[in-house]
Predict the 3D structure of the following.
Amino acid sequence: MRTKNLIAIGILFSVVLISSCKKTPKAAEIEKKTGYQGQGKSPVVSTEDKPIQKQWRGVWAFNDSITFFSNRFEGARLNGVAYDGDDHYTIWVTAENTPINVSPWYAFQVWSEEPRDITVQLNYQDSRSRYYPKISTDGKNFKPLDSTNFKSINPGEGEFGIKAAPESAELTIRVNENPTWITAQELYTSSVVQEWVDSLSQKPFIENYPIGLSKEERTMHLMEINENEEAKKALMIISRQHPPEVTGFLAMKSFIETISGDTELAKTFRQEHTVFAVPLMNPDGADNGHWRHNMGGIDLNRDWQNFNQPETRNVRDFLVEKDKDYEFVFGADFHSTWDDIYYPIDTTVTGEKGKIIFDWIENISERLPQKQTNISASDEIDPTMVSSKYFYVHHGMPAIVFELGDNTSRPFLKEKGKVAAEEIMKLLMEE
Ligand SMILES: [Zn+2]
Protein backbone atom coordinates (compact mmCIF):
# COMPACT_ATOMS: atom_id res chain seq x y z
CA MET A 1 0.00 0.00 0.00
CA ARG A 2 2.68 2.42 1.08
CA THR A 3 4.91 1.56 -1.89
CA LYS A 4 1.97 2.18 -4.21
CA ASN A 5 1.39 5.60 -2.70
CA LEU A 6 5.04 6.46 -2.99
CA ILE A 7 5.01 5.47 -6.65
CA ALA A 8 1.90 7.56 -7.17
CA ILE A 9 3.58 10.56 -5.52
CA GLY A 10 6.69 9.92 -7.60
CA ILE A 11 4.65 9.93 -10.80
CA LEU A 12 2.78 13.05 -9.76
CA PHE A 13 6.05 14.80 -8.95
CA SER A 14 7.63 14.00 -12.28
CA VAL A 15 4.51 15.14 -14.13
CA VAL A 16 4.73 18.50 -12.35
CA LEU A 17 8.43 18.70 -13.10
CA ILE A 18 7.95 17.94 -16.78
CA SER A 19 5.14 20.43 -17.20
CA SER A 20 6.98 23.20 -15.39
CA CYS A 21 10.07 22.68 -17.55
CA LYS A 22 8.11 22.40 -20.76
CA LYS A 23 7.77 26.05 -21.62
CA THR A 24 10.94 27.89 -22.34
CA PRO A 25 10.61 31.69 -22.12
CA LYS A 26 10.81 31.81 -25.91
CA ALA A 27 7.85 29.47 -26.38
CA ALA A 28 5.82 31.53 -23.93
CA GLU A 29 6.68 34.65 -25.86
CA ILE A 30 5.56 33.09 -29.11
CA GLU A 31 2.28 32.03 -27.56
CA LYS A 32 1.57 35.62 -26.57
CA LYS A 33 1.48 36.62 -30.21
CA THR A 34 -1.94 37.41 -31.55
CA GLY A 35 -3.63 35.92 -34.59
CA TYR A 36 -4.01 32.40 -35.88
CA GLN A 37 -1.22 30.17 -34.58
CA GLY A 38 -1.69 27.29 -37.00
CA GLN A 39 -2.44 23.64 -36.57
CA GLY A 40 -0.14 21.27 -34.71
CA LYS A 41 1.90 18.60 -36.40
CA SER A 42 0.02 16.16 -38.59
CA PRO A 43 -0.27 12.60 -37.32
CA VAL A 44 0.91 9.84 -39.64
CA VAL A 45 -2.11 8.29 -41.38
CA SER A 46 -2.56 5.60 -43.99
CA THR A 47 -3.22 6.91 -47.50
CA GLU A 48 -4.54 3.70 -48.98
CA ASP A 49 -7.98 4.02 -50.57
CA LYS A 50 -11.00 4.41 -48.33
CA PRO A 51 -14.60 4.18 -49.48
CA ILE A 52 -16.42 7.43 -50.15
CA GLN A 53 -20.09 8.29 -50.42
CA LYS A 54 -20.87 9.87 -53.77
CA GLN A 55 -23.69 12.37 -53.48
CA TRP A 56 -26.99 11.73 -55.20
CA ARG A 57 -27.43 14.32 -57.91
CA GLY A 58 -30.81 15.69 -58.80
CA VAL A 59 -33.52 18.27 -58.22
CA TRP A 60 -35.71 18.57 -55.14
CA ALA A 61 -39.22 19.97 -55.71
CA PHE A 62 -41.43 21.59 -53.01
CA ASN A 63 -44.53 23.70 -52.46
CA ASP A 64 -46.59 21.88 -55.10
CA SER A 65 -43.54 21.86 -57.33
CA ILE A 66 -42.95 25.55 -57.68
CA THR A 67 -39.75 25.82 -55.60
CA PHE A 68 -36.68 23.76 -56.53
CA PHE A 69 -33.21 22.97 -55.20
CA SER A 70 -30.53 21.38 -57.36
CA ASN A 71 -27.02 19.97 -57.08
CA ARG A 72 -26.72 19.11 -60.76
CA PHE A 73 -23.64 21.15 -61.58
CA GLU A 74 -19.86 20.90 -61.19
CA GLY A 75 -18.74 21.68 -57.69
CA ALA A 76 -22.20 21.24 -56.14
CA ARG A 77 -22.75 19.73 -52.73
CA LEU A 78 -26.25 19.27 -51.32
CA ASN A 79 -27.22 16.03 -49.65
CA GLY A 80 -30.77 16.63 -48.52
CA VAL A 81 -33.53 19.25 -48.31
CA ALA A 82 -36.63 19.30 -46.12
CA TYR A 83 -39.54 21.74 -46.31
CA ASP A 84 -40.55 23.00 -42.87
CA GLY A 85 -43.53 25.16 -43.94
CA ASP A 86 -43.78 28.98 -44.30
CA ASP A 87 -41.08 29.11 -47.01
CA HIS A 88 -38.50 27.70 -44.59
CA TYR A 89 -36.18 24.89 -45.71
CA THR A 90 -33.58 22.81 -43.91
CA ILE A 91 -30.53 21.76 -45.89
CA TRP A 92 -28.29 18.85 -45.04
CA VAL A 93 -24.65 18.71 -46.09
CA THR A 94 -22.46 15.65 -45.53
CA ALA A 95 -18.79 14.81 -46.08
CA GLU A 96 -17.46 12.37 -48.71
CA ASN A 97 -16.19 10.17 -45.86
CA THR A 98 -14.98 10.43 -42.28
CA PRO A 99 -12.87 11.15 -40.32
CA ILE A 100 -12.30 14.41 -42.10
CA ASN A 101 -11.01 17.89 -41.42
CA VAL A 102 -13.92 20.26 -40.71
CA SER A 103 -14.28 22.00 -44.00
CA PRO A 104 -18.00 21.70 -44.78
CA TRP A 105 -18.31 22.68 -48.41
CA TYR A 106 -21.78 23.32 -49.81
CA ALA A 107 -23.02 24.57 -53.17
CA PHE A 108 -26.55 24.43 -54.56
CA GLN A 109 -29.02 26.18 -56.80
CA VAL A 110 -32.50 27.31 -55.83
CA TRP A 111 -35.34 28.81 -57.87
CA SER A 112 -39.09 29.28 -57.70
CA GLU A 113 -41.73 29.77 -60.36
CA GLU A 114 -43.23 32.52 -58.20
CA PRO A 115 -40.81 35.14 -56.85
CA ARG A 116 -40.57 34.88 -53.06
CA ASP A 117 -38.30 35.23 -50.03
CA ILE A 118 -37.27 31.90 -48.62
CA THR A 119 -35.30 30.99 -45.52
CA VAL A 120 -32.77 28.21 -45.68
CA GLN A 121 -31.04 26.67 -42.70
CA LEU A 122 -27.70 24.96 -43.35
CA ASN A 123 -26.84 21.91 -41.25
CA TYR A 124 -23.71 19.80 -41.55
CA GLN A 125 -22.57 16.32 -40.61
CA ASP A 126 -20.44 16.61 -37.46
CA SER A 127 -19.46 20.16 -38.24
CA ARG A 128 -20.32 23.76 -37.55
CA SER A 129 -20.81 26.44 -40.23
CA ARG A 130 -17.32 27.37 -41.42
CA TYR A 131 -17.87 29.16 -44.72
CA TYR A 132 -19.77 32.42 -45.05
CA PRO A 133 -22.21 31.99 -47.97
CA LYS A 134 -21.55 33.44 -51.40
CA ILE A 135 -24.37 34.22 -53.82
CA SER A 136 -24.51 34.38 -57.61
CA THR A 137 -27.14 34.67 -60.32
CA ASP A 138 -24.92 33.39 -63.16
CA GLY A 139 -22.69 30.78 -61.46
CA LYS A 140 -19.61 32.81 -62.36
CA ASN A 141 -19.68 36.04 -60.40
CA PHE A 142 -20.11 35.58 -56.68
CA LYS A 143 -20.37 37.97 -53.77
CA PRO A 144 -20.82 37.41 -50.04
CA LEU A 145 -24.46 37.20 -49.00
CA ASP A 146 -25.65 40.53 -47.58
CA SER A 147 -25.18 40.38 -43.80
CA THR A 148 -28.82 41.40 -43.24
CA ASN A 149 -29.78 38.09 -44.88
CA PHE A 150 -27.51 35.99 -42.68
CA LYS A 151 -28.28 34.76 -39.19
CA SER A 152 -25.89 32.75 -36.99
CA ILE A 153 -27.57 30.00 -35.02
CA ASN A 154 -25.84 29.19 -31.75
CA PRO A 155 -22.74 31.34 -32.38
CA GLY A 156 -19.34 29.88 -31.49
CA GLU A 157 -16.73 30.96 -29.00
CA GLY A 158 -13.19 32.26 -29.46
CA GLU A 159 -11.44 33.82 -32.41
CA PHE A 160 -10.32 30.95 -34.65
CA GLY A 161 -11.18 27.38 -35.48
CA ILE A 162 -14.36 25.44 -35.86
CA LYS A 163 -15.48 26.17 -32.28
CA ALA A 164 -15.60 29.84 -33.18
CA ALA A 165 -18.01 29.15 -36.04
CA PRO A 166 -21.79 29.18 -35.55
CA GLU A 167 -23.47 25.80 -35.20
CA SER A 168 -25.57 26.48 -38.27
CA ALA A 169 -26.63 29.42 -40.40
CA GLU A 170 -29.95 30.69 -41.62
CA LEU A 171 -30.03 32.53 -44.92
CA THR A 172 -32.81 34.58 -46.43
CA ILE A 173 -32.78 34.44 -50.21
CA ARG A 174 -34.95 36.26 -52.73
CA VAL A 175 -35.65 33.65 -55.38
CA ASN A 176 -37.28 33.83 -58.79
CA GLU A 177 -37.59 31.58 -61.84
CA ASN A 178 -33.86 31.86 -62.64
CA PRO A 179 -31.46 29.83 -60.52
CA THR A 180 -29.61 31.49 -57.67
CA TRP A 181 -26.33 29.83 -56.64
CA ILE A 182 -25.46 29.61 -52.96
CA THR A 183 -21.93 28.35 -52.32
CA ALA A 184 -19.35 28.12 -49.54
CA GLN A 185 -16.77 29.98 -51.66
CA GLU A 186 -16.57 31.17 -55.26
CA LEU A 187 -16.82 28.25 -57.71
CA TYR A 188 -13.48 27.28 -59.24
CA THR A 189 -14.20 23.84 -60.66
CA SER A 190 -11.95 21.98 -63.10
CA SER A 191 -13.49 23.66 -66.14
CA VAL A 192 -13.28 27.16 -64.61
CA VAL A 193 -9.64 26.60 -63.64
CA GLN A 194 -8.88 25.26 -67.12
CA GLU A 195 -10.45 28.36 -68.70
CA TRP A 196 -7.98 30.48 -66.75
CA VAL A 197 -5.05 28.18 -67.61
CA ASP A 198 -5.97 28.24 -71.31
CA SER A 199 -6.38 32.01 -71.37
CA LEU A 200 -2.96 32.54 -69.77
CA SER A 201 -1.48 30.01 -72.20
CA GLN A 202 -2.27 32.45 -75.03
CA LYS A 203 1.06 34.06 -74.16
CA PRO A 204 3.82 32.69 -76.39
CA PHE A 205 5.98 31.57 -73.45
CA ILE A 206 3.24 29.69 -71.57
CA GLU A 207 1.89 26.27 -72.38
CA ASN A 208 -0.12 23.68 -70.54
CA TYR A 209 -0.22 19.95 -70.96
CA PRO A 210 -1.59 16.83 -69.24
CA ILE A 211 0.60 15.11 -66.66
CA GLY A 212 -1.78 12.24 -65.93
CA LEU A 213 -5.26 11.38 -64.82
CA SER A 214 -6.97 11.71 -61.48
CA LYS A 215 -8.68 8.78 -59.79
CA GLU A 216 -11.94 9.55 -61.62
CA GLU A 217 -9.95 10.08 -64.81
CA ARG A 218 -10.03 13.82 -65.07
CA THR A 219 -6.96 15.23 -66.80
CA MET A 220 -4.47 16.95 -64.55
CA HIS A 221 -2.89 19.93 -66.28
CA LEU A 222 0.49 21.42 -65.72
CA MET A 223 1.24 24.99 -66.71
CA GLU A 224 4.78 25.78 -67.82
CA ILE A 225 6.12 29.31 -67.99
CA ASN A 226 9.31 29.26 -70.01
CA GLU A 227 10.65 32.07 -72.14
CA ASN A 228 14.22 30.90 -72.58
CA GLU A 229 15.40 27.38 -73.31
CA GLU A 230 18.44 28.04 -71.14
CA ALA A 231 16.31 28.90 -68.10
CA LYS A 232 17.17 25.86 -66.01
CA LYS A 233 16.33 27.14 -62.54
CA ALA A 234 12.85 25.95 -61.73
CA LEU A 235 9.97 26.74 -59.40
CA MET A 236 7.24 24.25 -58.52
CA ILE A 237 3.86 25.70 -57.57
CA ILE A 238 0.75 23.73 -56.64
CA SER A 239 -2.67 24.49 -55.18
CA ARG A 240 -6.09 23.00 -54.32
CA GLN A 241 -5.07 19.66 -52.88
CA HIS A 242 -8.07 20.54 -50.72
CA PRO A 243 -11.03 21.49 -52.90
CA PRO A 244 -12.71 24.20 -50.77
CA GLU A 245 -9.46 26.16 -50.40
CA VAL A 246 -10.34 28.75 -53.01
CA THR A 247 -8.60 31.69 -51.30
CA GLY A 248 -5.25 29.89 -51.56
CA PHE A 249 -5.99 29.29 -55.21
CA LEU A 250 -6.77 32.99 -55.77
CA ALA A 251 -3.44 34.05 -54.25
CA MET A 252 -1.66 31.42 -56.38
CA LYS A 253 -3.46 32.73 -59.47
CA SER A 254 -2.22 36.26 -58.81
CA PHE A 255 1.29 34.90 -58.08
CA ILE A 256 1.40 33.10 -61.45
CA GLU A 257 -0.07 36.07 -63.33
CA THR A 258 2.58 38.35 -61.84
CA ILE A 259 5.44 36.07 -62.91
CA SER A 260 3.82 35.88 -66.36
CA GLY A 261 3.46 39.67 -66.54
CA ASP A 262 5.05 42.33 -68.71
CA THR A 263 7.08 44.09 -66.03
CA GLU A 264 10.86 44.40 -66.42
CA LEU A 265 11.24 42.36 -63.24
CA ALA A 266 9.20 39.44 -64.62
CA LYS A 267 10.85 39.55 -68.04
CA THR A 268 14.33 39.51 -66.54
CA PHE A 269 13.36 36.76 -64.12
CA ARG A 270 12.07 34.55 -66.93
CA GLN A 271 15.43 34.66 -68.67
CA GLU A 272 16.81 32.31 -66.03
CA HIS A 273 13.78 30.75 -64.41
CA THR A 274 11.10 28.32 -65.51
CA VAL A 275 7.88 27.94 -63.53
CA PHE A 276 5.90 24.71 -63.34
CA ALA A 277 2.43 24.92 -61.81
CA VAL A 278 -0.39 22.52 -61.07
CA PRO A 279 -3.21 24.91 -60.14
CA LEU A 280 -5.75 22.17 -59.40
CA MET A 281 -4.27 19.14 -57.66
CA ASN A 282 -7.63 17.58 -56.81
CA PRO A 283 -9.98 18.04 -59.78
CA ASP A 284 -12.28 15.17 -58.71
CA GLY A 285 -12.72 16.67 -55.27
CA ALA A 286 -13.44 20.11 -56.72
CA ASP A 287 -16.05 18.85 -59.20
CA ASN A 288 -17.72 16.50 -56.72
CA GLY A 289 -17.96 19.18 -54.05
CA HIS A 290 -15.73 17.34 -51.59
CA TRP A 291 -14.85 18.80 -48.20
CA ARG A 292 -11.21 17.72 -48.44
CA HIS A 293 -10.39 14.32 -49.97
CA ASN A 294 -9.90 12.92 -53.45
CA MET A 295 -11.97 10.09 -54.94
CA GLY A 296 -9.75 7.62 -53.09
CA GLY A 297 -11.16 9.13 -49.92
CA ILE A 298 -7.72 10.44 -48.96
CA ASP A 299 -6.24 13.76 -47.91
CA LEU A 300 -3.71 14.20 -50.72
CA ASN A 301 -1.47 16.30 -48.53
CA ARG A 302 -0.67 13.25 -46.44
CA ASP A 303 0.35 11.12 -49.43
CA TRP A 304 3.77 12.58 -50.32
CA GLN A 305 5.53 9.75 -48.53
CA ASN A 306 3.76 6.64 -49.79
CA PHE A 307 2.18 7.93 -53.03
CA ASN A 308 -0.87 5.70 -52.96
CA GLN A 309 -2.98 8.20 -54.94
CA PRO A 310 -2.70 9.00 -58.68
CA GLU A 311 -2.81 12.79 -58.18
CA THR A 312 0.32 12.85 -56.01
CA ARG A 313 2.04 10.19 -58.14
CA ASN A 314 1.52 12.30 -61.29
CA VAL A 315 3.33 15.25 -59.76
CA ARG A 316 6.05 13.06 -58.23
CA ASP A 317 6.77 11.43 -61.62
CA PHE A 318 6.82 14.81 -63.30
CA LEU A 319 9.31 16.18 -60.77
CA VAL A 320 11.57 13.15 -60.98
CA GLU A 321 11.71 13.55 -64.76
CA LYS A 322 12.33 17.33 -64.72
CA ASP A 323 14.94 17.08 -62.01
CA LYS A 324 17.27 15.58 -64.61
CA ASP A 325 17.39 18.88 -66.52
CA TYR A 326 16.44 21.54 -64.01
CA GLU A 327 17.68 22.79 -60.68
CA PHE A 328 14.65 23.36 -58.45
CA VAL A 329 15.13 26.53 -56.44
CA PHE A 330 11.71 27.17 -54.88
CA GLY A 331 8.48 25.34 -54.14
CA ALA A 332 5.13 26.57 -52.84
CA ASP A 333 1.85 24.87 -52.08
CA PHE A 334 -1.10 27.24 -51.65
CA HIS A 335 -3.87 26.45 -49.15
CA SER A 336 -6.59 28.11 -47.07
CA THR A 337 -7.37 27.97 -43.40
CA TRP A 338 -8.86 30.13 -40.61
CA ASP A 339 -6.47 33.00 -41.27
CA ASP A 340 -3.32 33.74 -43.26
CA ILE A 341 -0.31 31.77 -41.97
CA TYR A 342 3.06 30.51 -43.27
CA TYR A 343 4.28 26.94 -42.75
CA PRO A 344 7.97 26.92 -43.77
CA ILE A 345 10.58 24.30 -42.90
CA ASP A 346 12.82 25.43 -40.06
CA THR A 347 16.36 26.51 -40.92
CA THR A 348 17.60 24.13 -38.22
CA VAL A 349 16.78 21.55 -40.91
CA THR A 350 17.37 23.42 -44.16
CA GLY A 351 20.34 25.54 -43.07
CA GLU A 352 21.61 28.37 -45.28
CA LYS A 353 19.61 27.09 -48.23
CA GLY A 354 16.26 27.53 -46.50
CA LYS A 355 16.89 31.11 -45.37
CA ILE A 356 15.49 32.50 -48.60
CA ILE A 357 12.00 31.47 -47.44
CA PHE A 358 12.32 33.50 -44.24
CA ASP A 359 13.80 36.51 -46.06
CA TRP A 360 10.92 36.29 -48.46
CA ILE A 361 8.29 36.21 -45.69
CA GLU A 362 9.97 39.21 -44.09
CA ASN A 363 9.93 41.15 -47.36
CA ILE A 364 6.26 40.35 -47.96
CA SER A 365 5.40 41.42 -44.40
CA GLU A 366 7.27 44.71 -44.83
CA ARG A 367 5.28 45.54 -47.92
CA LEU A 368 1.95 44.42 -46.44
CA PRO A 369 2.10 45.71 -42.86
CA GLN A 370 -1.69 45.96 -42.69
CA LYS A 371 -1.97 42.23 -42.05
CA GLN A 372 0.17 40.55 -39.43
CA THR A 373 0.77 36.94 -40.43
CA ASN A 374 2.21 34.30 -38.16
CA ILE A 375 4.88 31.78 -39.10
CA SER A 376 4.71 28.20 -37.90
CA ALA A 377 7.97 26.51 -38.89
CA SER A 378 8.34 22.74 -38.81
CA ASP A 379 11.59 20.97 -37.98
CA GLU A 380 10.32 17.51 -38.85
CA ILE A 381 10.74 16.27 -42.39
CA ASP A 382 10.45 12.53 -41.88
CA PRO A 383 8.08 11.11 -43.04
CA THR A 384 7.62 13.67 -45.81
CA MET A 385 3.81 13.21 -46.04
CA VAL A 386 3.11 16.82 -47.04
CA SER A 387 4.14 18.33 -50.37
CA SER A 388 6.53 21.00 -49.11
CA LYS A 389 8.60 18.45 -47.19
CA TYR A 390 8.75 16.14 -50.22
CA PHE A 391 9.82 19.10 -52.38
CA TYR A 392 12.66 19.86 -50.01
CA VAL A 393 13.81 16.35 -49.15
CA HIS A 394 13.72 14.85 -52.65
CA HIS A 395 14.32 17.84 -54.91
CA GLY A 396 16.27 20.22 -52.69
CA MET A 397 13.75 23.04 -53.00
CA PRO A 398 13.34 25.56 -50.23
CA ALA A 399 9.58 25.14 -49.90
CA ILE A 400 6.56 26.46 -48.06
CA VAL A 401 2.89 25.85 -47.40
CA PHE A 402 1.39 29.26 -48.08
CA GLU A 403 -1.98 29.58 -46.33
CA LEU A 404 -4.59 32.26 -46.84
CA GLY A 405 -7.60 32.92 -44.64
CA ASP A 406 -11.04 31.71 -45.73
CA ASN A 407 -12.31 35.25 -45.23
CA THR A 408 -9.25 37.24 -46.28
CA SER A 409 -10.51 40.01 -48.55
CA ARG A 410 -10.30 39.15 -52.22
CA PRO A 411 -8.47 42.33 -53.27
CA PHE A 412 -5.92 41.67 -50.51
CA LEU A 413 -5.41 38.06 -51.67
CA LYS A 414 -4.65 39.35 -55.12
CA GLU A 415 -2.23 41.94 -53.78
CA LYS A 416 -0.53 39.37 -51.56
CA GLY A 417 -0.05 36.94 -54.45
CA LYS A 418 1.45 39.75 -56.52
CA VAL A 419 3.77 40.97 -53.76
CA ALA A 420 4.82 37.39 -52.98
CA ALA A 421 5.72 36.83 -56.65
CA GLU A 422 7.66 40.09 -56.92
CA GLU A 423 9.64 39.43 -53.75
CA ILE A 424 10.57 35.84 -54.63
CA MET A 425 11.66 36.94 -58.10
CA LYS A 426 13.95 39.58 -56.59
CA LEU A 427 15.46 37.18 -54.05
CA LEU A 428 16.02 34.37 -56.55
CA MET A 429 17.79 36.76 -58.93
CA GLU A 430 20.07 37.97 -56.13
CA GLU A 431 21.26 34.41 -55.48
ZN1 LIG B 1 -5.22 22.73 -47.20
User: Anything to note?
Assistant: Residues 28 and 112 are 56 Å apart (CA to CA). Residues 1-32 have pLDDT under 50 and may be disordered. The domain at 190-430 is CATH 3.40.630.10 (Aminopeptidase). Residues 242, 245, 335 surround zinc ion (CB under 6 Å).
